[in-house]
Known about the structure:
With 181 residues, the protein is α+β, with helices and mostly antiparallel strands. It has helices at residues 3-17, 19-29, 44-58, 62-81, 83-88, 93-107, 141-154; strands spanning 118-125, 128-134, 159-165, 174-180. It has a four-stranded antiparallel β-sheet with strand order 1-2-4-3, with helices on one face.
Amino acid sequence: MYGIINKAIEGLVTENFGSEKWDQIKVQSGIKEDRFLSNDHYEDATTYQLIGAASQVLGISQNEILLAFGKYWILNTGHQHYGTLMHAGGTSLKEFLLNLPNFHSRVMLIYPSITPPDFKVFTITDKELHLYYYSTRPGLTYFAEGLIVGLAESFQETISVVLLQQRVGERDPDIFKISWV
Ligand code: HEM
């Protein structure tokens, strides 16, 4: 994945727990890089190792970290560094989610060789939709959930998110039921 992802994990950790914890996490992960460059490519394994090490050092489950990372990605990385892109996504959560299937094609103007996620959206009722998240990468279910929660927060909307189905293989989506309460 692009280095921007690993840099954002660093931001999440240092802003919430301090830079000493981040140094411990890097040592624990066994990763040799001293710092990450946003536009450089790193093995996916690097990201997974950082999440695993963060979980061990901070004593928080990997799912909790992924959830927090998803929120951080929207509320900090997204809004602080890619405001125009985020703005273009929509003016409400529903509009943003309906546009989500095309979102990463605009991201690809900045990061041309990403392996983007794939989304499908099904409107169930006025107050409920189902979001299908397809990924070539395993284990990112709670990152996606954190992204949804972060988006809702950024639009100041109250929602509930229920995981209806969890990805088993590459062809199976995570399915989230999103309802406005
Ligand atoms: C601020 C705008 C955004 C930027 C710049 C961005 C950029 C990226 C980048 C660089 C990656 C790593 C992929 C790679 O390097 O191969 C990624 C992955 C991902 N992004 Fe975005 N993204 C943005 C917003 C969003 C939003 C709003 C969502 C969904 C609500 C989202 C969902 C995901 C997911 C789930 C992945 C994991 C990839 C996978 O499943 O394989 N992103 N994004």
